[in-house]
Protein backbone atom coordinates (compact mmCIF):
# COMPACT_ATOMS: atom_id res chain seq x y z
CA UNK A 1 0.00 0.00 0.00
CA UNK A 2 3.05 2.27 0.33
CA UNK A 3 3.29 4.56 -2.69
CA UNK A 4 6.87 5.10 -3.97
CA UNK A 5 8.36 8.41 -5.07
CA UNK A 6 7.43 9.52 -8.58
CA UNK A 7 4.04 7.78 -8.64
CA UNK A 8 1.95 10.85 -7.75
CA UNK A 9 1.91 14.22 -9.49
CA UNK A 10 2.51 17.46 -7.59
CA UNK A 11 -1.11 18.46 -7.16
CA UNK A 12 -2.03 15.10 -5.66
CA UNK A 13 0.86 14.66 -3.22
CA UNK A 14 0.73 18.31 -2.14
CA UNK A 15 -3.01 18.10 -1.47
CA UNK A 16 -2.55 14.85 0.43
CA UNK A 17 0.31 16.36 2.45
CA UNK A 18 -1.85 19.33 3.44
CA UNK A 19 -4.73 17.10 4.55
CA UNK A 20 -2.52 14.70 6.49
CA UNK A 21 -0.68 17.59 8.20
CA UNK A 22 -3.96 18.99 9.48
CA UNK A 23 -5.10 15.54 10.62
CA UNK A 24 -1.85 14.74 12.44
CA UNK A 25 -1.80 18.16 14.10
CA UNK A 26 -5.37 17.66 15.32
CA UNK A 27 -4.51 14.16 16.49
CA UNK A 28 -1.65 15.50 18.61
CA UNK A 29 -4.02 17.92 20.32
CA UNK A 30 -6.75 15.32 20.89
CA UNK A 31 -4.30 12.69 22.12
CA UNK A 32 -2.95 15.07 24.73
CA UNK A 33 -6.51 15.48 26.01
CA UNK A 34 -7.57 11.83 25.93
CA UNK A 35 -4.42 9.93 26.95
CA UNK A 36 -2.57 10.63 30.16
CA UNK A 37 1.06 9.99 31.03
CA UNK A 38 0.25 6.42 32.15
CA UNK A 39 -1.21 5.58 28.76
CA UNK A 40 1.60 7.14 26.69
CA UNK A 41 3.76 3.95 26.66
CA UNK A 42 0.84 2.17 24.98
CA UNK A 43 1.48 4.26 21.87
CA UNK A 44 5.07 3.03 21.71
CA UNK A 45 4.09 -0.60 22.21
CA UNK A 46 1.41 -0.36 19.55
CA UNK A 47 3.79 1.35 17.11
CA UNK A 48 6.34 -1.44 17.54
CA UNK A 49 3.68 -4.12 16.97
CA UNK A 50 2.30 -2.46 13.84
CA UNK A 51 5.77 -1.81 12.47
CA UNK A 52 6.59 -5.51 12.74
CA UNK A 53 3.25 -6.56 11.23
CA UNK A 54 3.68 -4.27 8.22
CA UNK A 55 7.13 -5.60 7.41
CA UNK A 56 5.48 -8.60 5.75
CA UNK A 57 4.31 -7.27 2.37
CA UNK A 58 4.16 -8.30 -1.26
CA UNK A 59 3.67 -6.57 -4.65
CA UNK A 60 0.07 -5.92 -5.66
CA UNK A 61 0.38 -3.92 -8.87
CA UNK A 62 0.75 -0.35 -10.01
CA UNK A 63 3.95 -0.03 -7.94
CA UNK A 64 2.22 -0.60 -4.62
CA UNK A 65 2.30 -3.42 -2.08
CA UNK A 66 -0.17 -5.30 0.08
CA UNK A 67 0.29 -5.95 3.79
CA UNK A 68 -1.48 -5.95 7.14
CA UNK A 69 -2.25 -2.44 8.34
CA UNK A 70 -3.02 -2.54 12.07
CA UNK A 71 -5.06 0.67 12.07
CA UNK A 72 -8.24 -0.97 13.34
CA UNK A 73 -6.42 -2.59 16.26
CA UNK A 74 -4.74 0.68 17.20
CA UNK A 75 -8.07 2.51 16.95
CA UNK A 76 -9.84 -0.06 19.12
CA UNK A 77 -7.19 0.30 21.83
CA UNK A 78 -6.11 3.93 21.59
CA UNK A 79 -8.95 5.70 19.80
CA UNK A 80 -8.71 7.30 16.34
CA UNK A 81 -6.35 10.13 17.28
CA UNK A 82 -3.85 7.97 19.12
CA UNK A 83 -4.03 5.48 16.25
CA UNK A 84 -3.36 8.27 13.75
CA UNK A 85 -0.18 9.25 15.61
CA UNK A 86 1.00 5.65 15.91
CA UNK A 87 0.42 4.88 12.22
CA UNK A 88 1.95 8.18 11.10
CA UNK A 89 5.07 7.43 13.16
CA UNK A 90 5.36 3.97 11.63
CA UNK A 91 4.92 5.30 8.07
CA UNK A 92 7.53 8.03 8.62
CA UNK A 93 10.10 5.59 10.03
CA UNK A 94 9.48 3.17 7.17
CA UNK A 95 10.01 5.94 4.59
CA UNK A 96 13.10 7.49 6.21
CA UNK A 97 15.01 4.37 7.25
CA UNK A 98 13.66 1.48 5.18
CA UNK A 99 12.75 3.12 1.84
CA UNK A 100 9.25 1.67 2.21
CA UNK A 101 7.17 4.42 0.60
CA UNK A 102 8.53 7.62 -0.91
CA UNK A 103 9.54 10.87 0.75
CA UNK A 104 7.68 13.24 -1.56
CA UNK A 105 4.53 11.12 -1.22
CA UNK A 106 4.88 10.73 2.54
CA UNK A 107 1.80 12.90 3.08
CA UNK A 108 -0.26 10.64 0.82
CA UNK A 109 0.91 7.49 2.58
CA UNK A 110 0.10 9.04 5.95
CA UNK A 111 -3.30 10.13 4.68
CA UNK A 112 -4.14 6.64 3.41
CA UNK A 113 -2.81 4.52 6.28
CA UNK A 114 -2.73 6.86 9.30
CA UNK A 115 -5.78 9.05 8.72
CA UNK A 116 -8.35 7.30 6.52
CA UNK A 117 -7.90 3.85 8.07
CA UNK A 118 -8.30 4.88 11.74
CA UNK A 119 -11.24 7.17 10.96
CA UNK A 120 -13.02 4.43 9.02
CA UNK A 121 -12.51 2.02 11.93
CA UNK A 122 -13.71 4.67 14.36
CA UNK A 123 -16.94 5.20 12.43
CA UNK A 124 -17.61 1.45 12.34
CA UNK A 125 -17.00 1.17 16.10
CA UNK A 126 -19.28 4.12 16.82
CA UNK A 127 -22.02 2.62 14.64
CA UNK A 128 -21.82 -1.03 15.73
CA UNK A 129 -20.43 -0.62 19.23
CA UNK A 130 -16.74 -0.69 20.13
CA UNK A 131 -15.29 -3.96 21.37
CA UNK A 132 -17.76 -6.28 19.65
CA UNK A 133 -16.16 -8.94 17.41
CA UNK A 134 -18.33 -7.98 14.42
CA UNK A 135 -17.36 -4.32 14.81
CA UNK A 136 -13.67 -5.21 15.13
CA UNK A 137 -13.78 -7.42 12.04
CA UNK A 138 -15.72 -4.96 9.87
CA UNK A 139 -13.65 -2.05 11.15
CA UNK A 140 -10.50 -3.90 10.12
CA UNK A 141 -11.82 -4.95 6.73
CA UNK A 142 -13.25 -1.54 5.84
CA UNK A 143 -10.13 0.31 7.01
CA UNK A 144 -7.75 -1.60 4.78
CA UNK A 145 -10.17 -1.82 1.83
CA UNK A 146 -11.00 1.91 1.74
CA UNK A 147 -7.36 2.87 2.26
CA UNK A 148 -6.50 0.76 -0.77
CA UNK A 149 -9.25 2.48 -2.75
CA UNK A 150 -7.73 5.84 -1.79
CA UNK A 151 -4.34 4.69 -3.11
CA UNK A 152 -5.94 3.63 -6.39
CA UNK A 153 -7.71 6.98 -6.78
CA UNK A 154 -4.52 8.93 -6.10
CA UNK A 155 -2.57 6.92 -8.67
CA UNK A 156 -5.33 7.40 -11.22
CA UNK A 157 -5.69 11.14 -10.53
CA UNK A 158 -1.94 11.49 -11.05
CA UNK A 159 -2.18 9.76 -14.43
CA UNK A 160 0.24 7.06 -13.27
CA UNK A 161 -2.00 4.14 -14.10
CA UNK A 162 -5.59 3.98 -15.41
CA UNK A 163 -8.29 3.63 -12.77
CA UNK A 164 -9.68 0.65 -14.66
CA UNK A 165 -6.41 -1.17 -14.00
CA UNK A 166 -5.36 -0.09 -10.54
CA UNK A 167 -8.77 -0.08 -8.86
CA UNK A 168 -9.60 -3.77 -9.46
CA UNK A 169 -6.05 -4.76 -8.46
CA UNK A 170 -6.04 -2.80 -5.22
CA UNK A 171 -9.67 -3.51 -4.32
CA UNK A 172 -9.45 -7.22 -5.13
CA UNK A 173 -6.25 -7.94 -3.25
CA UNK A 174 -7.12 -5.82 -0.24
CA UNK A 175 -10.62 -7.30 0.00
CA UNK A 176 -8.83 -10.60 0.63
CA UNK A 177 -6.14 -9.08 2.85
CA UNK A 178 -8.91 -7.40 4.83
CA UNK A 179 -10.32 -10.80 5.82
CA UNK A 180 -6.98 -11.80 7.28
CA UNK A 181 -6.60 -8.39 8.88
CA UNK A 182 -10.05 -8.74 10.46
CA UNK A 183 -9.42 -12.21 11.86
CA UNK A 184 -5.98 -11.29 13.24
CA UNK A 185 -7.28 -8.05 14.74
CA UNK A 186 -10.15 -9.87 16.47
CA UNK A 187 -7.74 -12.45 17.90
CA UNK A 188 -5.16 -9.90 19.08
CA UNK A 189 -7.81 -7.57 20.51
CA UNK A 190 -9.43 -10.45 22.43
CA UNK A 191 -6.06 -11.57 23.78
CA UNK A 192 -5.11 -8.07 24.90
CA UNK A 193 -8.42 -7.29 26.57
CA UNK A 194 -8.78 -10.76 28.14
CA UNK A 195 -5.36 -10.50 29.75
CA UNK A 196 -5.67 -6.87 30.79
CA UNK A 197 -2.80 -5.70 28.61
CA UNK A 198 -2.86 -1.99 27.77
CA UNK A 199 -5.90 -1.88 30.06
CA UNK A 200 -5.96 1.90 30.65
CA UNK A 201 -5.88 2.67 26.94
CA UNK A 202 -8.58 0.14 26.13
CA UNK A 203 -11.05 2.36 27.95
CA UNK A 204 -11.00 4.99 25.21
CA UNK A 205 -14.51 4.40 23.89
CA UNK A 206 -16.01 3.96 27.33
CA UNK A 207 -14.41 7.18 28.53
CA UNK A 208 -15.52 9.00 25.42
CA UNK A 209 -19.12 7.90 25.88
CA UNK A 210 -19.19 9.41 29.37
CA UNK A 211 -18.06 12.84 28.17
UniProtKB/TrEMBL annotation:
Gene3D superfamilies listed in its UniProt record: 1.10.1760.20
GO cellular component: a single term: plasma membrane
UniProt KW keywords: Cell membrane, Membrane, Transmembrane, Transmembrane helix, Transport
Principal location class: membrane
Single Gene Ontology BP annotation: transition metal ion transport
Pfam families per UniProt: CbiM
Bilayer-spanning residue ranges: 40-58, 78-98, 110-128, 134-157, 169-192
Protein topology in the membrane: Multi-pass membrane protein
Subcellular location(s) of the protein: Cell membrane
Entry protein name: Cobalamin (Vitamin B12) biosynthesis CbiM protein
Amino acid sequence: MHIPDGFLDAKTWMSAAALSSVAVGYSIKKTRDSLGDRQAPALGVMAAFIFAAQMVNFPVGGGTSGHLLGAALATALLGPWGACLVLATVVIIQALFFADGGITVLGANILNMAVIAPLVSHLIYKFLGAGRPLAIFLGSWCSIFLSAIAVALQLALSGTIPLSVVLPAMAGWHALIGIGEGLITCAVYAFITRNGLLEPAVRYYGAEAKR
